[in-house]
Specification:
mainly beta, 8-stranded antiparallel sheet, Immunoglobulin-like, 3 domains, 736 residues, disordered N terminus, globular
Length: 736
């Protein structure tokens, strides 16, 4: 399931599998004989074919056993509407041996209309694709999704508590080919890459999907029940695998990184930093679903810098997603069920761990209903802070969950930040209860203790929230509550605001017209009331929005908002209008534009004004291997008091990627920050055989519009290179 910002968009996941119809038809309507043998009874547990000789994963079904492997078809849509015939049909066959699961997909279509690109891993979600959504533990708690586009390019993710995380990279194999009647995909899922139960036979759950980009259409086997909405984990079809191996996993991941940084001093670029690091990580399978990891001097590099964000007029610190490989695996274990749309504290935010010396973690299942995730990192304190804070930060993180029927669970999370003389500790629970096929209740509550001065009592705080949610084909609605006390602290997390009480109501009815041009109309009505505890004032936000899905893969959204915001001891107007549109007019071009015009606050001087912003994105793909991504972000603010524009901020970014094949790409990025008058450039060559076995070579520069006059830097029209960096990383994944 690929993450998005709305209920529809967050469930964009694709797949093609399983069929029992006697004849399949292509997009052009031409009949085709079924490629595979239909499963005897698709309403029962599916039993893939046991094989002794592994197939060659090449996208060609030339192994004799594929003709006898049970398969399914008869996919039904769930986006844009439920239970419709898809534009093109799909068959999927299933097999396995003691070490691997195998899936073969025959996706019928008109070849010229298939959207595909030779892209990097996890960059293929704007293509046609198939997806295997797997509940490997068959406990309705964790959904692992494996995506493949028609060229065999992979994407993968894990979903826990309704939150999808696309950062995990599993080791698995796939290949795809486009032919005269559509495309084919073969997938091999090694059991060593999954966390599965120890029983025999091993039973897993699956939802198989296919996504057709030009129609923005998702179809699945089994069909999703319109009365249940998008609750995938409660609609899984069982797969039975007798006689698979339950092994002891062993992995070693040595890595070497080297970097150099030059900074301009007067007229010359001088080397200020050059270092090489060697790290070693290891993994040991205590059982097939309980894994111990350890790392020494972990590699915390990221191969692409964070995209620029507007960093003026901020009430809260900027949030950047995690990109460092050490933290990405298993990150979803620490996700909490969402209980509100605003001001939910993120109790654990891994980027608060900046420069660890070592780390260790245990993740997996203890018994059929208990999940455990324990992380410890010994982090370095910044050198300038060591006289006050000490040498190291100890960061213990403990997560426990107990599952119940359906996808219900109750969990506990503890985070600690321990220094020589100060600390912060947070402990609490979250709970998700399935009340009916379409409704659920989530709650969470946490207590915090913070000590900044050992001679004073610890500062205590708390937060509590709940969310009642219901979702079906025709309507979604929520009622949520969140309280965050003014003294609540989560130093290992991310907080936007404390000292508030927030009540939210949300209603989202949908209409499905019979028109061939319009697929769906959605209407959203939201009311949010916040009491600001320090001032005692109330603020409000009341939205009305309309979403239109039309012409296959086009989307238009308009939203009107009446709102206020309390800042300091004053209440300011923040009402305004918002417009968004995106679409893919051709296979070569995708674009998105978002515009906001609102009343706003200028936080540095606490004055009322007006704000406008535009975010424009475009992807141009002139060939299967070449792709250009362009973005422009613009924001401005004008004071009501003086009618003076206090800032105008623009960031433009261009990324050009040439993907030689599924393993090797070359990428260059240029970003210009008009407010800072700075230009940055990056170049990366990347080879990834499998996740873990990689080679990166990178180069970056930073330019400012200045010149050296002999004593200082002064502004000028041309650019001068101020910083330069080189980066290299090599790692190799060894598995027993």
């Amino acid at each position: 399931m690929q993450p998005r910002n709305s209920t529809y968009q967050s469930l964009i996941i694709a797949g093609c599998l399983l069929a029992t119809v006697p004849v399949a038809r292509s997009q052009s309507g031409q009949p085709h004989e079924p490629v595979f043998s239909p499963a005897p009874n698709i309403s029962d547990t599916l039993r893939p074919l046991r094989i002794d000789v592994a197939p060659t994963i090449d996208g060609v079904f030339d192994e004799p056993f594929w003709k006898n492997a049970p398969s399914v078809s008869g996919f039904k849509t769930f986006i844009p509407d439920f239970d419709k015939e898809p534009k093109a049909q799909t068959e999927v066959a299933m097999a396995y041996d003691k070490d691997n699961l195998y899936f073969a997909f025959r996706c019928y279509d008109t070849p010229s209309q298939i959207k595909a690109s030779m892209s990097a891993r996890d960059k293929m979600y704007k293509d046609d694709f198939i997806c295997i959504n797997l509940d490997a533990l068959n406990d309705q708690q964790v959904l692992t999704a494996f995506y493949v586009n028609p060229f065999g390019i992979q994407g993968d993710s894990r979903s826990v508590g309704g939150n999808e995380d696309s950062s995990p990279d599993f080791v698995w194999y796939s290949a795809g080919k486009i032919d005269s009647i559509g495309y084919t995909v073969e997938v091999q899922l090694p059991l060593k890459s999954l966390r599965y139960g120890s029983e025999d036979p091993t039973v897993m759950g699956v939802v198989l999907e296919r996504y057709i980009r030009r129609a923005d259409e998702h179809s699945s086997f089994p069909r999703l029940d319109p009365a249940k909405g998008f609750s995938f984990l409660t609609e899984m079809h069982p797969l039975s695998y007798p006689g698979v191996d339950h092994f002891t996993l062993m992995e070693l991941l040595p890595a070497i990184t080297a970097s150099r940084q030059d900074v301009r001093q007067g007229t010359n670029l001088e080397r200020v930093k050059q270092q090489g690091e060697v790290s070693l990580s290891g993994k040991y399978g205590i059982t097939s679903d309980l894994i111990f990891d350890a790392t020494v001097n972990p590699d915390f590099s990221q191969v692409e810098s964070d995209a620029g964000q507007v960093d003026v007029n901020l009430r809260y610190s900027l949030f950047y997603p995690e990109k460092r490989s050490f933290f990405l695996e298993g990150q979803d274990n620490y996700n909490l069920t969402s209980t509100s749309f605003q001001y939910d504290p993120q109790i654990f935010y891994s980027r608060t761990i900046a420069d660890p010396v070592l780390g260790a973690k245990i993740t997996g299942k203890v018994g059929p209903q208990n999940s455990l995730a324990v992380l410890y990192a010994l982090d370095n304190v910044l050198e300038a802070d060591r006289p006050v804070l000490g040498r190291y930060v100890h960061t213990p993180i403990v997560r426990y969950k107990r599952s119940f029927s359906d996808d219900s669970y109750i969990g506990m999370l503890y985070t600690g930040k321990e220094l020589e003389r100060t600390n912060n500790r947070v402990v609490g629970y979250d709970q998700y209860q399935r009340l009916s096929p379409s409704s659920s209740l989530s709650t969470s509550g946490f207590l915090s203790w913070a000590t900044d001065d050992p001679s004073l009592p610890a500062l205590t705080g708390h937060t509590f929230g709940f969310n009642y949610a219901s979702g079906t084909r025709d309507v979604n609605y929520n009622l949520a509550f969140r309280e965050v006390s003014k003294d609540f602290r989560a130093d290992m997390g991310y907080l936007t605001r404390t000292g508030l009480v927030n009540i939210i109501g949300y209603l989202n009815p949908r209409i499905f017209p019979t028109s061939t041009f319009f697929q769906k109309f959605g209407f959203e009505f939201t009311t949010s009331q916040v009491r600001d505890e320090p001032s005692g004032l109330w603020e409000t936000s009341n939205d009305a929005a309309m979403n239109v899905f039309f012409a296959g893969n086009w989307f238009f959204r308009t939203r009107l908002n009446y709102s206020t915001e309390v800042f300091g001891t004053q209440r300011f107007q923040t009402s305004g209008a918002h417009v968004q549109m995106y679409g893919q007019p051709t296979k070569m071009i995708y674009f998105s534009v978002t515009y906001h015009r609102t009343k706003a606050i200028y936080y540095p001087t606490a004055e009322q004004g007006k704000s406008g912003s535009v975010v424009a994105l475009a992807t141009v793909q002139p060939s299967d291997n070449l792709q250009s991504d362009l973005s422009l972000t613009y924001a401005e603010f004008r004071s009501d008091l003086t009618n003076v524009r206090l800032y105008a901020y623009a960031i433009s970014r261009a990324k050009l990627t040439y993907q030689v094949n599924q393993y090797l790409f070359f990428r260059t990025i240029g970003e210009y920050n008009a407010n800072r008058k700075s230009l940055s450039s990056e170049f990366l060559a990347s080879f990834t055989y499998i996740p873990g076995t990689v080679l990166y070579l990178g180069y970056g520069s930073l330019y400012d519009k200045v010149r050296w006059n002999g004593t200082e830097y002064v502004e000028r029209d041309g650019f001068l290179e101020m910083q330069r960096g080189l980066f290299m990383k090599m790692s190799y994944l060894w598995r027993s």
